[in-house]
RNA sequence: GGAGCAGUAGCUCAGUUGGUUAGAGUAUCGGCCUGUCACGCCGAGGGUCACGGGUUCGAGUCCCGUCUGCUCCGCCA
């Protein structure tokens, strides 16, 4: 059908006959000469039609944008002075001799070269949107990434193994997508939130090294970096500890970035405890490209006569922290805007101190709260925050959770506003996560990672005596403020797994109903094992500089989890519902 | 469940204090044009101002509700 790809034609093919297939990117009709830019996946090439070849010229007059053509012609050097250095093929052109119109095309609903088409219209006509070179490049990059990841893991002796999509609903974690069973009235499959249990079972099956690029489903509300179905690179290994898998995963990422981006990632990746991350960045996925940090000042504020600070400073669950921004000149209005911004995270206010002259002590400072602060607190504050003349110090004082989220977000917001974000790659590991977190609404311990994560203690007594103090053997890989991967060494002893279920308040009966197969499997010879899962969409998004994972997914969903292209979801027919033993509570859902 | 932003020509947008026939760019269609590459020039067509209600002599503009898209909180690892 075709002999060459449009974007690959060059001077080495001059005088060669070629047959090209592609879309009309643009037609320029000069009356006596017609240019058609023909586009395929490889790029563009200009085809020229002259009136001497009357048949081809007549067809060239008829074609319109996005027509699909097969063109026969000859490559030639462009006449001197008409070369186009913007185009990879710009030194040559094809003299068109024959045109087959393989298919006509209606006028597209949007122009492919329009920079700011609404995302809804792009999604509705995604097949046209994906023709744009930018989107082609993103999907190409995604394919390159998955190929290199597979190649690396294959070389390390991993087996790619598939796991079920129709599986069992699990308690804990996200809301499940349910699939009704026709053959079991009233019963449901769940789509996997991740293949977690299956990959552990594969370790118990003696597979030793497993990976899979696998779709996962979570029925939760969407974000720019969250889709209801997303792709994980899922990995599990037997007979390992943290250092083995972390080192291997680091090498994988270093190799990936080197080959795809030509970038050298650090060796080794820095490592930070969860506690340090929360103290210094207010989050467990710190963006190390931002040179601002939070400063703990609870102890300095414990004695001050300012209730807003003193109360959280003396509350074991409270925190007073400072965010010092050097050389920050902003208006009252901008401070108000930042106050509104932190209110999103539940902060009731945003106290601040302007440092006009660091050498003048208290007199060099300017703040509505200055009068509440004794000299000692001010001294300590200025020293710890390394404030200088021109600095602005913001404060968060509340429950630690609120302070962390508010100041953590403010840190990123200010960095963005002030263009303080460095242009490089900053990966790191977050380790030493707490095993459990106390859920105040449910009045019980919940897993910070998941219930199969091994605790950092050997004996069950220590775990059960003080669950809140127990750390886990989990590790997250963070890149530029995005959590791109997370994993852990798993529990491989049935007694420990039962103990963790007990701490989580999962009774013996429930445990055996929901996870009986896992507890059984642990009894039949389970190797020590652990693994990790990477959010592939997020990784690709970062690597191609996109701001949403929708831009690296061929057919993504909107924020309300619908597909504008297919109009899914849509009502099921009464016959389908009857077969599935389902009756709707309302007959008029639309 | 909640907060914010947006919805006007196929697309991207403007539309002043509520006031005559709702505009621009681009795309489309027609004509002219032999070296353009965002070709150029001339002309034409194209509007349920998201939807529903209200206020008013009069609503794209003001008010209420609904829907859709995006960002975020909650939710989610």
Write a compact overview of the structure shown.
By secondary structure, this protein is α+β, with helices and mostly antiparallel strands. Helix content is 30%, strand content 24%. The model has no long low-confidence stretch (mean pLDDT 95).
Count of individual beta strands: 22
Structural class: alpha+beta
Shape: globular
Unreliable spans are: none
Helices, by number, come to 17
- Proportion in helices: 25-40%
Mean pLDDT: 95
Which oligomeric form is depicted? Answer: single chain
DSSP strand content:
15-25%
Rg of Cα set = 30 Å
- Order the strands across the largest sheet as they lie in space: 6-9-10-22-21-20-17-11
Taking the sheet with the most strands, its summary is: 8 strands, mixed
Terminal CA distance reads 48 Å
Task: Write out key terms for the chains shown.
590 residues; alpha+beta; 17 helices; five-stranded mixed β-barrel; 30% helix
Structure description:
30% of the residues lie in helices and 24% in strands. It is of the alpha+beta class. A hairpin with a 2-residue loop joins strand 2 and strand 3. Helix 4 packs antiparallel against helix 6 and helix 10 crosses helix 12. It is globular and about 95 Å long. It binds one RNA strand of 77 nucleotides through strand 1, strand 2, strand 3 and helix 2.
């Amino acid at each position: 059908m075709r002999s060459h790809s449009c974007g690959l034609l060059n001077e080495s093919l001059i005088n060669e006959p070629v047959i090209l297939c592609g879309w009309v990117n643009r037609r320029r009709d000069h009356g006596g000469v017609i240019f058609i830019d023909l586009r395929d996946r490889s790029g563009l090439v200009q085809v020229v039609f002259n009136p001497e070849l009357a048949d081809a010229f007549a067809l060239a007059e008829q074609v319109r944008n996005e027509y699909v053509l097969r063109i026969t012609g000859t490559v030639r050097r462009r006449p001197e002075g008409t070369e186009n250095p913007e185009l990879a093929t710009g030194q040559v052109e094809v003299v068109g001799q024959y045109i087959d119109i393989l298919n006509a095309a209606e006028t597209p609903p949007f122009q492919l070269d329009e920079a700011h088409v609404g995302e809804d219209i792009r999604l509705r006509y995604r097949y046209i949107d994906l023709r744009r070179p930018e989107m082609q490049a993103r999907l190409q990059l995604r394919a390159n990434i998955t190929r290199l990841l597979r190649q690396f893991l294959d070389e390390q002796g991993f087996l790619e193994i598939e796991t079920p999509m129709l599986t069992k609903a699990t308690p804990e974690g996200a809301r499940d997508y349910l699939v009704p069973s026709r053959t079991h009235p009233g019963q449901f499959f769940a789509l996997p939130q991740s293949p977690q249990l299956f990959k552990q079972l594969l370790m118990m099956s003696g597979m030793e090294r497993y990976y899979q690029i696998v779709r996962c489903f979570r029925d939760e509300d969407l974000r720019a970096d969250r889709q209801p179905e997303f792709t994980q690179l899922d990995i599990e290994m037997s007979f390992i500890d943290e250092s083995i898998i972390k080192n291997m995963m680091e090498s994988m990422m270093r190799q990936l970035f080197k080959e795809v981006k030509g970038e050298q990632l650090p060796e080794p990746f820095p490592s930070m405890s969860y506690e340090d991350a929360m103290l210094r960045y207010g989050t467990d996925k710190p963006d190390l490209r931002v040179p601002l940090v939070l400063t703990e000042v609870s102890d300095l504020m414990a004695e001050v006569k300012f209730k807003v600070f003193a109360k959280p400073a003396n509350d074991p669950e409270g925190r007073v922290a400072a965010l010092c921004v050097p050389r920050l000149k902003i208006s009252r209005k901008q401070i108000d805007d930042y106050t509104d911004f932190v209110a999103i995270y539940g902060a009731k206010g945003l106290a601040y101190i302007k440092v006009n002259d660091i050498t003048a002590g208290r007199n060099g400072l300017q703040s509505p709260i200055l009068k509440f602060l004794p000299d000692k607190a001010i001294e300590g504050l200025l020293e710890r925050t390394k404030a200088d003349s021109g600095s602005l110090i913001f404060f968060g004082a509340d429950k630690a959770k609120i302070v962390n989220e508010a100041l953590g977000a403010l840190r990123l917001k200010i960095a963005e506003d002030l263009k303080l974000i460095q242009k490089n790659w900053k990966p790191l590991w977050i380790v030493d996560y707490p095993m459990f977190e106390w859920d105040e609404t449910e009045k019980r311990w919940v897993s910070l990672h998941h219930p199969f994560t091994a605790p950092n203690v050997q004996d069950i007594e220590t775990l059960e005596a003080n669950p809140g103090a127990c750390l886990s053997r989990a590790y997250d890989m963070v890149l530029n403020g995005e959590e791109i991967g997370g994993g852990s060494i798993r529990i491989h002893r049935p007694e420990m797994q039962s103990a963790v279920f007990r701490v989580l308040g999962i009774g013996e009966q429930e445990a055996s109903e929901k996870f009986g197969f896992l507890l059984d499997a642990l009894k039949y010879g389970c190797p020590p094992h652990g693994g990790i899962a990477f959010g592939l969409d997020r990784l690709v998004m970062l690597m191609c500089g996109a701001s949403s994972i929708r831009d690296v997914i061929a057919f993504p969903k909107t924020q309300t989890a619908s597909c504008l292209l297919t109009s899914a979801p849509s009502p099921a027919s009464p016959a389908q519902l009857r077969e599935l033993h389902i009756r709707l509570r309302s007959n008029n859902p639309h």
